[in-house]
Design brief:
- One of its GO terms (molecular function) is antiporter activity.
- Keywords: Membrane, Transmembrane, Transmembrane helix.
- One of its GO terms (cellular component) is membrane.
- It is found in: Membrane.
- Belongs to the multi antimicrobial extrusion (MATE) (TC 2.A.66.1) family.
- The longest helix has 39 residues.
- Helices cover 77% and strands 0% of the residues.
- It has two domains: 216 residues, no CATH class; 207 residues, no CATH class.
- The radius of gyration is 23 Å and the shape is globular.
- By secondary structure, it is mainly α.
Amino acid sequence: MEDNKDHDFFSHKFPTTSQVVEELKELWGMALPITAMNMLVFVRAVVSVLFLGRLGSLELAGGALSIGFTNITGYSVLVGLASGLEPVCSQAFGSKNWELLSLSLQRMVLILLMAIVPISLLWINLERIMLFMGQDSSITEMASIYCFYSLPDLLTNTLLQPLRVFLRSQKVTKPMMYCSLVAVVFHVPLNYLLVVVMELGVPGVAMASVLTNMNMVVLMAGYVCIFRKNEMMLRWGCGNGGLMIVYDGLGQLMKLAVPSCLMICLEWWWYEIVTVMAGYLPNPTLAVAATGILIQTTSMMYTVPMALAGCVSARVGNELGAGKPYKAKLAAMVALGCAFVMGFINVAWTVILRYGWAALFTNDEPVKALVASVMPIMGLCELGNCPQTTGCGILRGTARPVIGANINLGSFYFVGTPVAVGLAFWFKIGFSGLWFGLLSAQVACALSLLYVVVVRTDWEAEALKAEKLTRGVEMGNWNGSKNKDKMIDDEENKGLLVYGNGNKIDI
């Protein structure tokens, strides 16, 4: 068979062992650095919580409330919107359409700049919102301080999140890991300086997080502009049309960004809902404390499938953009296989280490017992979560986030929520009932996504759609000039500028 690095597979043949191994190397060569980066981001959050705890219980409670609020209303939205870049950038890179790659990054930055305006208003009014919801006034006041000093982080994330997708879509993952490592290494000294030395308290913890993210952005942007300037074409407001080129196509990108955002947020928000529901159980202090430990544990485990999802999205998009549908299918199937292996590993360790794990977080025996009783259920949830998360990445790579958003909505809110509420409160199962609700949601979601990806996906049709997308037909006009002397067909007249070989057509 011909070199599988340069040619697609035959539709009637199964890939060989060497081709599967090659795809595994390609996928994990990208995913391992991204996993390390995600773990570093997780460590940064843990450091912030530790310094809040050092300040006192009130500061810790206020910071925790603010972190939950900002995650729901801000960071989840920005990460979700930025994920709308994945199909466009990955497919554009696969087809060597450098201008679409560059312009899509600029368009996403503009979209996020518009998104942070209403988010900022929510953050500024956190205290009023929380008091209206009946939260403790002293905790709410502390949370509002942390939230106020976190406001610059919104601006930082308008660059950070798109840059991560932009680089990952081009298989650039190790530099992102190194940039994150350098930034996180300075996170502890920053906290010590601002919180301990300068005695800024809660504002100091918030400002340290902002500065750490700012360092990540500077390092990543510096890498793109200095070390990759000959390989990554960044033409800001390029062409005769100036900024109009960037604006033209915002609507089409939004059609990918909004459902991508919903697909991520609908799952992210559900975990926060579990915390709220735990507060209504007969022993709310015990239940909320156990929920906090379990959610931190799931967040840690989520770093691997999240990295795998982002990388398979890039791999599938790259191959579809290059016109290789069966290499894209192989990437998807290999990633799903890896996801199931990770799921079984999570089941195993959560069952084996359930008693010792809880002791790492608390000395409270009732809390440890409650956590240990639920960890096997949480492990089973991960058996569904790993392929579910990976499946969502595949759908983003094929530019079908709407399907993923609908599946997540149905699974988490029309299956998981009724099961959780019914078992926990109606049948009086209590805390375990909430996690059985999550398990039902993950099973429904995973089965639905597997059906769509494995059974219903026509990979040749997806490759044709990718060709249409990367030739500009669906992403707006590329320059502002109109040359009426050029004779082009009706479909190209909708917005074609750059072919896969980089040749330009003025329209």
